[in-house]
Amino acid sequence: MGVYEGIGKVKKHVEHADAYETRTISFYLKGAASPPSSDDFLKMKAGTKNPNISGQFMLEYYKEMEKKLGRAVDLSTADPKDVREFFASEERQIKRKLSKLRNKQNRVKLVKLLTRDWWEGLTADAKGEYSYFVGDDAMILRSKRAIEYV
Question: In terms of Cα–Cα distance, which of 14, 27, 10 is closest to 137?
């Protein structure tokens, strides 16, 4: 951490500076961190390769996209401009929805932390992360502490 002082010059904080400790909580779905390559996705779409979790998400979205458009879509022959416009429109809608969901999630996190409540069903591991399992699927919760200087 540092204080900005001109171009490319960062001055470190001293120990006696005013600071407070913050906590961040982040979630992710185990196995869904990296999407498949384009070639792997096409194999998954053709049914010649078993999809991983992120591949399943992509296949579900692809089917949803075809349903919204009312026709089958072959991305290799589709007009790139039409594809970009469709995805840009989808992205705007998703960002609006995500913003609302993040605000709701932040309120829930805040209430849980302030009331000293905790999530039932979480199991701690050696890394200090918590896991929540439903069948074979897992959601990972990471809690980190950071010093914020004023």
Answer: 27
d(CA 136, CA 30) in angstroms, rounded, equals: 10
Main-chain dihedrals φ then ψ at residue 50, nearest 5 degrees: -75, 130
Average pLDDT, the chain: 81
* pTM for the full predicted model: 0.52
Question: Which 3 state secondary structure label does DSSP give 20?
Answer: strand
- For residues 77 and 55, what is the distance between their CA atoms, to the nearest angstrom? 21
Q: How far apart are CA 84 and CA 90, in angstroms?
A: 10
| Mean pLDDT of the 74-80 span | 79
DSSP per-residue letters across 23-75: EEEEEEETT-SSPPPHHHHHHHHHTSS---HHHHHHHHHHHHHHHHHTS---T
Measured between alpha carbons, how far is 54 from 132 in angstroms, rounded to an integer?
18
